[in-house]
Every structure is written in structure tokens, then in C-alpha cells.
Protein 1
Amino acid sequence: MPKFIKSPKFIIGAIVVLWVAYILYANFQMDPVTFYLLPFKVLELKLRVSAVIIAAAIFGSIVTIVIQFLWSRSSKKASSPAPVVKVSTIA
């Protein structure tokens, strides 16, 4: 067996991937969720539970990446040293 298969990172990663696959498969079997966008069933949107889970994960990932980018950008501005100005007093 290759050495990387025995590593804890690989084993934990495989367990997480299999767990997420199970969640998506199990929720794909459920009835769709109905969202009523306007009253009196004028406009309704039917989505599968797995689609809602996937959309929420993608949205959360994108928001996290944007927040990290903005946070690192603001911390670089705050931590950059002020320019040194030399004043010469030679007469």
C-alpha cells in the first residue's frame, strides 16, 4: 500500500468526503422544498434539498474567501511602516 494512504490526513479526508457524499445522496432522496415567493401560490420555487445544501456551501465558501481577502488587504495597510523622512539641519 502507498505510504500516503496510511497517513491520518488522507484517512480523515476520505471520511469527510464519504460523509458529504452520503449527506448529498440521502437528501437527494427527499421531496423537494417549496419556496413561495409571492402569496397565494402565484410564484413558487421547488428545489431539492441537496441543491439547497450545495448552494449554501458554495455561498459560504465565496463569502469566506471575500472576507479573508478584504481582511488581509486592510491588515497590510495598517501594518505597513510609515515612510521615513530625513530632515537635514546642515547650515
Note: The mean pLDDT is 84.
Protein 2
Amino acid sequence: MSKIILKLKIFLEWFVEWFVFIATGILMICAINFALFSDGEQIPRATLIQILFSAMLTAAVTAVFFMLEPLKKSSMIFCFILHFSSLTAIMVVCGLHFGWVESGLIEIVKMGASVAFVYVFVIIIYYILDIRRAEQINRRLKEKYKDEEEL
């Protein structure tokens, strides 16, 4: 039972972290699109709720993907492609459902490009934070072993 609780805890922690990153990325894309392609319109209130909903969906998928360990390093590339494809599919469906995009190939490609932008943005942020966490852990381990050696 404790193994299930631990996995659920890890999932929830990753879900919250990914949700914040993804929601920020989606808001950035939305702001850029509105700034470049709208005639002075503001982001509608309903769109903000839709962004949070789509960020929840993609964060849940991302948390699940990151909980799965690839069997081989070569399968990691396949996992990234499958992950990106899943996120793109979710965002295209959300985009069509919420009226963000029309059902044309160009619109779907634009949505894929937006997903790619958010994907790269989030991976870079996650990588930077991951390096900092690793440095903190290494520093704490060095301090711990240094203190034990002095005893």
C-alpha cells in the first residue's frame, strides 16, 4: 500500500510542477499570438480557463510519461516522440473544441509548432532546475561526508 501512496505522491508533485511550467508556456504562446495576430483584442476570460484545463491535461500526461522508465536509452527517443505526439494531439483536440484553431492542416501545423515551442521552453526550464537540484544534492552530500570524515 505504501508503494502506491509513494507513486501517487510522486505523480502529484510532478503534476503540479509540470502544470506550472506548461501553463506558463501556453500563456506565453497565447500572449504572443494575440499580440501578433489579433487586432487589439484581449484574451477572453473563457480562454484563460480553457488554458488551465488544457495545461492540466498535458501536465497529467507529462507526469505519467516521466514516471515511466524507458527500457533502453534508444527507446528514450521513441518516448519523447510519443510524448510530444500525445501533447500535440491533446492540444489539437482542445484547440478544435475550444475554437482556438480551425480544422485545416495549416492551423493544425501551427498548433503543433506552438506545442513544440512550449515543449522546448518547458524542457529547458526543467533542465536548468534539474541541474541546480543535482548541484544542491551533491553539495549536501559533500558536506555530510566531510563532517563524517572529521569525526
Note: The mean pLDDT is 86.
